[in-house]
């Protein structure tokens, strides 16, 4: 791409993205454990509760606010490649590829390489969704 409406210095670094990921992982896992416990008490709702937390944490927060809580904490957000708010479908695409790419340490490292190797610091999911992660 290389022609984004943001200067390279405005793009979120791998370090900032990693910090946001760490905050999101810890918080969403804690929320998922609580949802599983609640679901276990009420019968077979544990899987549904876990899915709702996982989808809500990433897809809904990115589609509604342009960032996850972790991204908010580190001061980054997601925009489309024109610099506008991302769509709900872009949030879904980003996160489907994140689920596939987060399945192993090797795939996570491959994502870091994609970000570091791209002029617009895009991981594969950003490329598919036409999104950028920028500093705010």
From TrEMBL:
Subcellular location per the Swiss-Prot or TrEMBL entry: Cell membrane
User: A Pfam family in this protein?
Assistant: RDD
Enumerate the transmembrane spans: 21-42, 48-65, 99-116
Q: Does the keyword Chloroplast apply?
A: no
GO CC, sorted alphabetically, is:
plasma membrane
Transmembrane as UniProt keyword: yes
Record key words, sorted: Cell membrane, Membrane, Transmembrane, Transmembrane helix
Q: How does it sit in the membrane?
A: Multi-pass membrane protein
Q: Where is the RDD domain?
A: 11-129
InterPro entries associated with the record: Pra-immunoreactive, RDD
Major place of localization?
Answer: membrane
Instruction: Indicate what this protein is called per its UniProt record.
Output: RDD domain-containing protein
Q: Which organism is it from?
A: Halorubrum distributum JCM 13916
